[in-house]
Amino acid sequence: MKCIAVYTKNFELFSDIYEEVLRTPLTENEEKVVEGVTISDSGEVPANYLDRMKAKLDVVVMKIKGQPITILQHGELFEILLPETEAALI
Predict the structure, then answer these.
(1) Edge-to-edge, what's the strand order for the sheet holding 31-34?
(2) What are the percentages of helix, strand and coil residues in the chain, rounded to 5?
(3) Whether the Cβ atoms of residue 7 and residue 75 lie closer than 8 Å to each other
(4) CA–CA gap between residue 30 and residue 56 (Å, rounded)
């Protein structure tokens, strides 16, 4: 899975820029600023990463209805997890 990190703890702001973040082309480990928020392509995460994060009490897990996208929120960070097929479409 590909991981895009969004450095904000503000859910409303994240929601406002979510679509733009997905449309922003990034190379691995590249950072950009969208609406004043730093985003970066964190590369690939291991297959068991999502299961490990789900087990933590301080992690919120969100699924995008009808899409194979998972969003993790913890601390001041949102992580958008995209399967390879979805990441290739962005």
Answers:
(1) 31-34, 37-44, 2-6, 77-82, 70-74, 60-63
(2) 30, 35, 35
(3) no
(4) 27
Length of the chain: 90
Listing DSSP states for 61-90 in one string gives EEE-TTSS-EEEEETTEEEEEE-HHHHHH-
Q: Which residue has the tokens 């990190």?
A: 5
Give me the tens of pLDDT residue by residue for the chain, a chain 90 residues long.
Answer: 999 999 999 999 999 999 999 999 999 889 999 999 999 999 999 989 999 999 999 999 999 899 999 999 999 999 999 987 655 555
